[in-house]
Design the sequence.
């Protein structure tokens, strides 16, 4: 166990949490290709922030930063190219989901590595929770673009707003029922997301909140 005086300071996740909230609200209230493009940039920035707060070796950090640097223009090329069509957009959505998955994994690994839970640790856990919801929304969009039929039943519209809405209602197991997946692939991923949300809340967030101590308590 690392002595208290040698224990590394927890990463600062307040800016990351604010960035994720702004990104979600922006896509919820505005629509258009420019919003989707800006959201991809914000997701990439979120990944860089998660990487900055992680304990990944510097060599690996350089490799990941290079991958992100070249990945963004590739994403735009696939999304806006008429030659690739829905297939290119679906591949780009998978890339977004993988970036968010790596970001969530880095945050959870970092947060669980500290013996003392602080407010920044809770910010990190909430950031990871939001990233998981956005990640599954990207995977739902990929299924829609790569599949042969509509994603939602009853002819519901399939766009960034509805995918994120469906993702977070599934992650939190609210189950309003206004949006349901039509195909087996979408249903399977929705089940995985619901299970992920339950495990996340029951383990990570509950553990952090229960172990949280204010700065004054830590000094005592």
Sequence:
């Amino acid at each position: 166990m690392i002595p208290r005086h040698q224990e590394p300071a927890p990463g600062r996740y307040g800016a990351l949490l604010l960035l994720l909230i702004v990104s979600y609200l922006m896509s919820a209230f505005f629509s258009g290709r420019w919003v989707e493009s800006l959201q991809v940039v914000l997701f990439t920035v979120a990944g860089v922030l998660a990487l900055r707060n992680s304990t990944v070796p510097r060599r690996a950090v350089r490799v990941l930063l290079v991958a992100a640097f070249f990945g963004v223009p590739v994403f735009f090329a696939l999304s806006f190219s008429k030659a690739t069509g829905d297939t290119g957009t679906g591949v780009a959505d998978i890339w977004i989901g993988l970036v968010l998955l790596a970001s969530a994994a880095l945050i959870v690994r970092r947060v669980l590595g500290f013996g003392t839970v602080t407010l920044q640790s809770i910010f990190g856990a909430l950031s990871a929770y939001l990233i998981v919801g956005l990640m599954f929304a990207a995977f739902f969009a990929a299924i829609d673009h790569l599949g042969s039929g509509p994603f939602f039943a009853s002819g519901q519209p399939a766009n960034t707003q509805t995918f994120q809405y469906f993702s977070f209602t599934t992650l939190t197991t609210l189950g309003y029922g206004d949006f349901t997946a039509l195909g087996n692939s979408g249903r399977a991923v929705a089940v995985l997301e619901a299970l992920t949300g339950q495990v996340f809340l029951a383990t990570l967030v509950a553990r952090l909140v229960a172990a949280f101590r204010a700065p004054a308590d830590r000094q005592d």
